[in-house]
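From the pipeline queue, job 12 of 40. The input is one protein chain; the requested action is below.

Action: predict structure.
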Amino acid sequence: MKKILAISILVFLVGYAIYYAINPSNVKVGVTEGNAAPDFELTTLDGEKVSLSSLQGKKVILNFWATWCPPCRSEMPDMEKIHNEFNEDVVIAAVNLTSSEKNIETVESFVKELNLSFPVLLDKNGEINKQFEVLSYPTSYIIDEKGVITSKFVGAMTYDQMKDLLDLE
């Protein structure tokens, strides 16, 4: 009887361990694929406060960029196209390294020149760039509806690459 009880308890514990190894209850926060993206709050160019956690429920392209970056300029029209075509399912959150800009007017004129309508977030002292370990521009994180990073892309993305990374039809 004691052997049956001991074996039953052992089987239960092994099954319990396997279940939680396969289905972890909470995802680790970090900046690598499979981690929950660290939350932050920044002010947009329009003066609104936006937190990353407020975007959950939609796929997010978290793009780090600057006006002086030619590859950043080249990918912005494709981001605008994604924003316009998939606005119901995807949010473009373009984080500008504002501390590297001449002034805020430089960012405003860049956005106006390219006719961008997605949110431009201002990282005025570079804290979010550091938090996400951005070393070159542009750098984009693709984040799923649950706030988990599915991929990181360094360099300018094309429209088709964005669609592929976001798993859009």
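Job complete. The chain has five helices and seven strands.
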